Amino acid sequence: MSGSSRVAVQDRAAFLRRPEHRLLRVAALAGLVVVWEALTRVGWIPALFLPSPVGVLTELGEMAASGQLFVHLGASLRRLLLGFAAGGGAGVAVGVMTGFFSRADAVGQPLIAATFPIPKIALLPLLILWLGIGEPSKVAVIALGVFFPMAINTYAGVREADPLLVRAAVAFGAGRWSVIRKVIVPSALPMIFAGLKLGAGTALLLLVAAEMIAADSGIGFLVLHAGNIMDTTKLMVGIVVLSLLGLLSHWALACCERLAVPWRHT
Amino acid sequence: MRVIVDRLSKTYRDRTGRELAALVDIALRVEPEEFVAVLGPSGCGKSTLLGIMAGLLPATAGQVFFEGERRDGQPLTATVFQEFALFPWRSVRRNVEFGLEELGAAPEERKECVARFIAMTGLEGFEDKFPHQLSGGMRQRVGIARALAVDPAVLLMDEPFSALDAQTRTLMMEELLGIWERARTSIVYVTHNIQEAVYMADRVVVLSRRPGRVLDVVPIELKRPRHEGQMGEPAFVHAQERIWGLIKTQAQAALREGRA
Amino acid sequence: MRRITALVLAACAAAVLAGTAPAHAQQKVKVGALKLTSSAPLFIGVEKGFFKEFGIEPELVFFQAAAPIATALATGQLDVGATGVTAALYNIVLGGEQMWIVADKGREWPGYPLTGIVVQRDLYDGGLRGIGDLKGKRIGITTLGSTFHYHLGNVLEKVGLSLADVRVVPLQTMPAAIEALKGKQVDAILLPQPFPGVAESQGFGKILFWAGDLHPWQIATVFYSKKFAAERRRAVDFMRGYVKASRYYYDAVLVQKDGKRAPGADYDEVVRITAKYTEARPEVIRLGFPFQDRNGRLLVTDIERQMQWWTQNGFMKRTIPLKGIVDTSFVEEAAKAVPEK
Q: Is the pLDDT of residue C264 over 90?
């Protein structure tokens, strides 16, 4: 076609934009629950195999009212927090040391590389032999699960610390410990938080495994026990609580991160 | 204090063991309260010289001395960096405070000192902001305040305004001169900008391209306090032309090699 | 974890099986069992051809624990189950999946050592003698809701204690429980033979009591799936083979005279068959066979008692009427139909 014409420019990249679709998000989740409830109501799936959402909620309410739920939750949270504190603390310390000091790096790197791929669940029987069947072995397996992502992420965070900032700190008279405390650790904080989030998932996984043996309380125990006695509604309550714990820990860590790493978010 | 750079050489060794001379036989002096600019083309080793003076790099040969009266606990140098090098997790106030912390100053003393230099650098009202919330010019004010706060014998400035846009740079230069008039510290100011060097310095040390040698030291005979109007004065133009004459061939050679 | 996986797999399998064609008349009867001495009547029935005699071809399917047998039965993957009665089984029926307890498959019975209460040697030497002395102690069992859990609770109640007076430590597997006793991580354990014998012969444990002497009960039964129970003729035929095997078993190994074992003519054969199927050494098998009724008749009242106990202790929501879970008509019909030798 030749001659003069007037063409309005179209937004050709419209399909590339990704709106949030908030309503759709809620609807998807609600839809799942509704379909689930409907399936159990109609009786296509026996309640034994898939307890109804209403049944699960009722059971959850009863367990909360009797205080049973909080006994389990308390026991699990205690193990999780202790394991997190021990594994996280050790992971950050080892990550900082190996990331900063070349000798520690030479010693620590091969050790971590060799032990990291071991599935921590496989170590559980050994931990029980070493630490007994009480709380220490349960906390230790969670701590081990948290340790590695923390150590590896902290190491990466330390290595990524801006050398210019380190130089600046030294130029203003900082010694090695001051550099570590005031430059290296804050630089590594975002990576440390990424490690914490990874560790949280691993910790929940290991919690269930740890509570398999010689536990008489805890959410993991609740799930296993309910499975053992075929109380599938209680089993589902445990699974729902585990999933809530996962969501909650992620959210809590994100909040902590916003507080601890304000320069990244404002 | 007086700084004496005594036949300083620096050779880098790369991973393959190849040696690369950065500085050869540099000798210069900075008198008390003097403003000396070190000027040279890119890659002439200006920053290396500053790093050795600050004690952040070892010299291969020669030495740097500081001579004269020094107060108890006074640091020899403080550095203002081209890329600001502010700690992103510290507020303006806490960044300025950093050097004082490392010197072990008491909290009240730090507070008083920080307030003085925040005022001197025009950062009032921004004390609690974080670096990423500030413009480039404001950030470098923080860098300058941080360096001045420790009251160094010599202030080392490594192309402090080259990351700023032209307008901001001009304003900051004027402001730095104002601050210097009040603080009266010796300054070693590294730059590759001839106009900047002539406008600010008492003397301009001109370095050759790599390996860096002192080509000449050009005294600037302009009255202080300086102002923009002086840029048209014959003394200014003359100094500028003289320096350009020294480095023009150097710069052309660098351009041909694709390194400029 | 394994149990949960089993449950999920069972659910999937059920969905698949539901769509397949109805069972053929001459199909094998799938029997789920554990490789334990208490399964001896089943092994005898297969080995001696007692089932075949009545036109039944059984296929033994072996499991690691009792609860998954109940699950497999509920999902129609098994026709018959022969194992311990656990809280899981009751809860499956309570959850609406019908199955039937039809015959005796082993009892805890005075004079027939099965489950032993074993305490640490040191504690025994320190004067621990009675069940009452277990107060405040850590007692290892396999899982909560298992037959051992039930038995422990009932034994404690005999002396006025309850489960709350001890610390029950679930250790998942029997070997783990024996290791825990060895490592002094628990003070006592409740385990079936041969574990108590091993603990005592190695010196770290002392058998305090045989639990069956303190509280006799119907620990194991034969279950029918809903589908198999509905095939009346085959279900009765299977039971006829089972009754015949039970009598053979009883006469060979269970007869006692003046409180002492009086082995029958076929004793060694039963030991050999049992050893073959359980893959255990004959001397271990000879330690003892669990008691069961000569005709495979159930202790029906005990089933009711069990449900009441599980309910009181929070493992079941409510009890199931006996009519809804026990059906003795198969064993009664078979016992009459099988002639004595």
A: no
Domain of B242? 2-76+153-256
Given an 8 Å threshold on Cβ–Cβ distance, is A172 in contact with B130? no
Query: In terms of domains, do C69 and C122 share one?
Result: no
pLDDT greater than 60 at residue C19: no
Q: pTM score, two decimals?
A: 0.76
Q: What is the CATH number of the domain that holds C278?
A: 3.40.190.10
End-of-domain residue from the set B102, B130, B151: B151
Q: Is A171 within 8 Å of B54 when comparing Cβ atoms?
A: yes
Whether chain C lies against chain B with 3 or more Cβ pairs closer than 8 A is: no
Mark yes or no for CB contact C91/A229 under 8 Å: yes
CB contacts < 8 Å between A and B, how many?
51
Q: Are residues B100 and B220 in the same domain?
A: no
Question: Is the domain of B132 the same as that of B165?
Answer: no
Q: Are residues B175 and B133 in the same domain?
A: no
What pLDDT band is residue B169 in, cutting at 50, 70 and 90? confident
Whether residue B89 lies within 8 A of chain A, CB to CB, comes out as yes
How far the first Cα of chain C sits from its last, in Å, is: 48
Tell me if there are at least 3 CB pairs under 8 Å linking chains C and A.
yes
Interface touch A48/C92, C-beta < 8 Å:
yes
Domain limits for position C201: 115-214
**Mean pLDDT for the stretch of residues B232-244:** 92
What domains sit in chain A, N to C, each tagged with a CATH number?
Answer: 53-264 (1.10.3720.10)
B23 vs B9: CA distance, rounded Å:
5
Work out how many domains chain C is built from and give that number: 2
Rounded Cα distance, B244 and B229, in Å: 21
What does the alpha-carbon distance between residue B88 and residue A205 come to, in Å, rounded to a whole number?
Answer: 36
**Bridge partners for C223 per DSSP:** C81, C101
- Which of A174, A178, A263 shows the shortest C-beta gap to B132? A263
Minimal Cβ distance to A172: which of B88, B102, B130: B102
**Considering CB atoms only, which of A164, A172, A263 is closest to B83?**
A164
d(CA C67, CA C54): 29
Flag whether pLDDT at B225 surpasses 80: yes
Chains near B, with 3+ CB pairs < 8 A?
A: A
**pLDDT surpassing 90 at residue B156:** yes
Chain A closest-CA separation from residue C311 CA (Å): 12
**Closest residue in chain A to residue C94, using alpha carbons only:** A48
Q: Is A77 on the interface with B (CB under 8 A)?
A: no
pLDDT tens digits for A162-211?
Answer: 999 999 999 998 889 999 999 999 999 999 999 999 888 888 888 888 88
Q: What's the longest Cα–Cα distance across chain A? A: 90
Best residue of A166, A170, A172 to probe chain B, by most B CBs closer than 10 Å: A172
**What residue type is C269 in one-letter code?**
E
Q: Are residues B58 and B183 in the same domain?
A: yes
| B10, B101: one domain | no
**Higher confidence at residue B257 or residue A111?**
A111
Over residues B12-19, the mean pLDDT reads 86
Domain contains B81: no
